[in-house]
Specification:
The complex is a heterodimer of chains A (about 350) and B (about 625). Chain A is globular and about 95 Å long. Chain A is built from twelve helices and twelve strands. In chain A, strands 2-1-3-4-6-5-11-7 form an eight-stranded mixed β-sheet, sandwiched between helices. In chain A, strands 8-9-10 form a three-stranded antiparallel β-sheet. By secondary structure, chain A is α/β, with parallel strands linked by helices. With about 625 residues, chain B is an alpha/beta fold. Chain B has three domains: about 230 residues, Pyruvate-ferredoxin Oxidoreductase, domain 3 (3-Layer(aba) Sandwich), CATH 3.40.920; about 190 residues, Rossmann fold, CATH 3.40.50; about 100 residues, Rossmann fold (3-Layer(aba) Sandwich). Chain B contains 21 helices and 23 strands. Classes of the chains: A alpha/beta (about 350), B alpha/beta (about 625). The interface between A and B is large, with 60 and 71 residues.
């Protein structure tokens, strides 16, 4: 991306990012929340409107580009990261975003996802994870819990689910984060973080499907209980949660353990202090797997952010370097290269 | 008859040579060097590399044999030759595989050191063909190539394994002597390639010269041969393969259009070389993306096209199958895109290193829905250059995907190419939309092309995608009449390309008893076959299609002027099917699917069969 422009100078508002198309998600869908937050965050980024590109695959959430008044492309199932890669490589000056769902990204698009992560292409991938196939009317997805009863698994699914954050971390994504559709403030913060990250930024949004998987995240969103089940990650801060902020997490070897801060045995000083810049991915992995354990709270926030050169920078630099060293290519010279001979 | 060093020099008009050995013997390199030198001395030529898919198949076995066939002459040469006049066999397996194809009375130069018990057994010879009289009827020259190479290279400081690897250059040197070719082009190449590795330079030079002097000094060969220069049009030439020409064509199209070139591709035989060549052209601003799979190859190209690059993807048949859905997306989003399919034997993995023309129907129809794309086919190695430019031009002008079909034979084969000057080539006009006033993403110009409004252009923010779009506005539309209109518009757009493609030319009379109609890479075989039929007294016309969707405007009329249409193809009749469908006429098919170019004599025989003997 080129240098930021003064936000005031751009004078953009959320309305500038609303397209003239009617939004057609089901009433109450978590997708509305993501759309609203994106439209709130975009005017604050200092990026001119014409430099945003949204690319989506197939699924409910992949209709996202139609509702954003930016350049956009609603493509084919699973391929959004690959198409977005082409957009970014062709014009590295653009801010390229991918809207995708758990079927789109974790199933049919799995290969493109892991390779985009591995290459650290400067894309912002927003995964709308509702743990179900919505658009095809309710089959279990690769993030559905084992045993899920759906139309295609009437006796319960026998698959183990993917953990999207572990997959992203394992594929070396350079920013890995999670938020929840019902936490607009947190989501805005996360969107701003991924927008500003240089490299592949992956944001998983826990998103409720009111029709086919309603309440999938109710433990994490119901006012009464959510603070007992969610731990908010903040860089440099201890892992504390609970309604009265009386619970913490300590790391016992490689095992996270919940401790009671009122039991007289543990204090805040004993707790695991979150370090999102941690060089190794181990702690972030442990955090990502906390969702798999019923006794642990679900972390949201930035799990890990590291800085390394992006693929798109590498491509441009290599071309610049070679041009500097050898000069810009002369086509005539190229055509007439090799063993030539002349017929008089 | 001339004499040279006491040896007779026989003048020939054309010769076909086959170099064959183990896949690790360096036969492709030997053949390429011989071709380059042959082109350099002014012969016209055509080559056919023929190698196994295995990189190093078990040594000495017949399935590990790698061959390089080359046809050169003092007249025009259109094909790599039906049957070799000369076979260079580095081991028994190479002899076994290639003997059946050698002309009766042909020359066999073989490495007699390799005809030991072990190698004979590996090639499944029950007795030694050098001793059992089975080679009677051929002129056999057994040469101790291994022994003499070891002797010649003893002072180069090479390891025994490296010495063994140089024996192909002994054979090459001997062939240079036999056909009166200079050593300099290969010696220069050796210096350039291995400059710093003195021992390797020494080995290659000594082996090459040892082979040459062996020919000169030995009593084995009574004669050597001379093929006079071909009369080629004036100009500067180079030897070019189809894959290199394709790569150069796209770099040139990038220059002519002023657009940066983007290639998204996944390695696949026999198309990978295009990726290799373009990856080298960083100085020309070319961006190459080696994608995670075929689908990402085309998807990234679609993204780059959306973002304003001249975007291409390169593949072979199985890859084209994988790119099917994304090709449909390019049709729907009406983005310029060139898809190169270097056809190989199919179905499935098929014959990866062999040629075929059986992806025509896949290119034409292999997508869901009414999904028309332009289909072009290059005819010869050097024609790939022009067709790459032409494909780019049509894609950009009509905002549509274009499939360019080449094939394994023209991709790997080489011929002399009269190099054009850049300023002789027509510029490619590109219209990118910048004016936000009254902008509609699916508005249409006089060619029905929609505007190319690339991200980064202020005021042109818009959405495209795979869902059906309303004409003009580009909004998602399920309106029945709109879908019908859009299907017709997308088809009409491709049809209108007829205005930009040349009429079909006829070689021979414009009407008559027989027209031989071909397409793509069979150009050489069909041309040579028709010429042979004419020499035999037949009156026959010939035409060759390079544009299959749309067909040239005059095709229907051309076809109507002939009593018989013969369509030779390396498939089971795919063009024949399309022609019958389009023009409701009877056509005669000639089909062979051997993974090889069509044999000219077979086509000539078919012509004679139709015309009923010479007239």
């Amino acid at each position: 991306m080129s240098d930021k422009i003064d936000v005031k100078e751009l004078n953009l508002t959320p309305k500038d990012f609303q397209s003239d198309q009617d939004v057609r998600w089901c009433p109450g869908c978590g997708d509305y929340s993501v759309l609203a937050q994106v439209q709130r965050v975009f005017p604050t980024l200092g990026i001119p409107k014409e430099k945003f590109v949204w690319v989506a695959g197939i699924g409910c959430s992949s209709r996202f580009p139609y509702y954003m008044d930016t350049f956009g492309m609603h493509t084919i199932h699973g391929r959004a990261p690959a198409i977005a890669t082409g957009v970014k490589l062709a014009n590295p000056d653009l801010s390229v975003w991918v809207a995708t769902g758990d079927g789109d990204l974790m199933s049919i698009g799995g290969n493109h996802f892991i390779h985009a992560c591995r290459k650290n292409i400067d894309l912002k991938i927003v995964l709308f994870n509702n743990r179900i196939y919505g658009l095809t009317k309710g089959q279990y997805s690769p993030t559905s819990e084992k045993g899920k009863i759906t139309k295609s698994s009437p006796f319960g699914s026998v698959d183990y689910p993917f953990n999207p954050l572990s997959l992203a971390l394992g594929s070396e994504a350079t920013l890995v984060a999670r938020t929840i559709d019902r936490e607009p403030k947190h989501m805005k913060e996360m969107l701003a973080r991924i927008a500003e990250h240089k490299g592949l930024a992956f944001l998983e949004v826990y998103q409720n499907c009111v029709i086919f998987n309603d309440g999938a995240y109710s433990d994490l969103t119901d006012k009464e209980v959510k603070s007992e089940h969610v731990v908010v990650l903040e860089h440099g801060e201890p892992l504390i949660f609970g309604k009265k902020l009386d619970k913490g997490i300590v790391l016992d070897g490689f095992t996270p353990v919940v401790v009671d801060l009122n039991d007289g045995k543990h204090s805040v000083d004993d707790l695991w202090v979150h370090d999102e810049k941690d060089k190794g991915p181990i702690r972030a992995f442990i955090l990502s797997h906390m969702t798999d354990s019923p006794d642990m709270p679900t972390p949201i926030g930035v799990f890990r952010q590291i800085i390394k050169p992006t693929y798109n920078e590498g491509v441009v630099r290599q071309i610049e370097h070679i041009m500097e060293e050898q000069g810009e290519g002369d086509l005539e010279e190229l055509l007439f290269s090799g063993n030539t001979w002349t017929v008089e | 008859m001339e004499k040279n060093n006491g040896k007779e020099i026989k003048e020939l008009t054309d010769v076909t040579v086959m170099f064959a050995g183990d896949s690790g013997d360096g036969m492709q390199l030997t053949g390429t060097q011989f071709s380059d030198t042959t082109a350099f001395v002014g012969n016209d030529l055509s080559t056919l590399p023929d190698y196994p898919a295995e990189i190093r198949a078990p040594l000495g076995t017949t399935y590990g044999v790698s061959g390089f066939q080359l046809h050169f002459g003092s007249g025009e040469v259109y094909t790599p030759g039906d049957n070799p006049d000369v076979l260079v066999a580095m081991n028994p397996a190479a002899l076994k595989v290639n003997l059946p194809n050698l002309k009766k009375g042909g020359i066999i130069i073989l490495n007699k050191d390799a005809f030991d018990k072990k190698n004979l057994a590996l090639a499944k010879y029950e007795s030694n063909p050098l001793e059992d009289n089975s080679l009677a009827g051929y002129r056999v020259f057994p040469v101790a190539i291994t022994t003499m190479t070891i002797e010649a290279l003893k002072d180069c400081g090479l390891k025994p394994k490296e010495v063994a690897r140089s024996k192909n250059f002994f054979a090459l040197g001997l062939m240079y002597w036999l056909f009166n070719r200079p050593l300099d082009p290969t010696l220069d190449w050796v210096k350039e390639k291995f400059g710093k590795k003195e021992s390797v330079v020494c080995g290659n030079e000594k082996a090459l010269k040892a082979g040459y002097y062996y020919g000169e000094n030995t009593e084995l060969f009574a004669a050597r041969y001379k093929v006079a220069k071909a009369e080629l049009p004036k100009g500067t030439y180079r030897s070019i393969s189809g894959n290199e020409a394709t790569a150069l064509g796209f770099v040139t199209a990038s220059k002519l259009s002023g657009l940066p070139l983007f290639l998204g591709s996944y390695p696949i035989t026999p198309a990978s070389e295009i990726l290799h060549f373009l990856s080298k052209y960083k100085r020309y601003g070319v961006k190459t993306f080696q994608a995670e799979d075929e689908i990402a190859g085309i998807s990234s190209a679609i993204g780059a096209s959306f973002a304003g690059s001249l975007a291409i993807t390169t593949t072979s048949g199985p890859g084209l199958a994988l790119k099917t859905e994304a090709t449909g997306l390019a049709v729907m989003t009406e983005l310029p895109l060139v898809i190169v399919n270097v056809q190989r034997g199919g179905p499935s993995t098929g014959l990866p290193t062999k040629t075929e023309q059986a992806d025509l129907l896949q290119a034409m129809y292999g997508r869901n829905g009414e999904s028309p794309v332009a289909v072009l086919a290059a005819t010869t190695p050097s024609d790939c250059f022009y067709m790459a430019i032409q494909a780019s031009k049509l894609a950009l002008k009509y905002m549509a995907p274009v499939i360019l079909l080449t094939d394994g034979y023209i991709a790997n084969g080489a011929e002399p190419w009269r190099i054009p000057h850049v300023d002789e080539l027509e510029k490619i006009e590109v219209k990118k939309r910048t004016d936000p006033e009254d902008f509609h993403p699916y508005d249409r110009d006089e060619n029905l092309a929609r505007p190319w409004a690339v991200p980064g252009t202020p005021g042109l923010e818009h959405r495209i995608g795979g869902l059906e779009k309303a004409n003009i506005t580009g909004n998602v539309s399920y309106v029945p009449e709109n879908h019908d209109l859009m299907c017709r518009l997308r088809a009409e757009k491709i049809e209108r390309m007829q205005n930009d493609i040349p009429d079909l030319e006829i070689d021979g009379d414009p009407e008559g008893e027989l027209l031989v109609l071909g397409w793509g890479g069979t150009y050489g075989s069909i041309t040579e076959a028709v010429n042979a039929a004419r020499r035999a007294g037949h009156t026959v016309s010939r035409a060759h299609l390079k544009y299959i969707n749309p067909f040239p405007k005059n095709l229907g009329e051309v076809l109507s002027k002939f009593d018989n249409i013969l369509i030779p193809e390396i498939n089971l009749g795919q063009l024949a099917k399309v022609i019958r469908d389009r023009y409701l006429i009877h056509v005669i098919q000639f089909n062979k699917m051997r993974g090889l170019p069509l044999k000219t004599y077979e086509i000539t025989e078919k012509i004679a069969e139709i015309l009923g003997g010479a007239k």
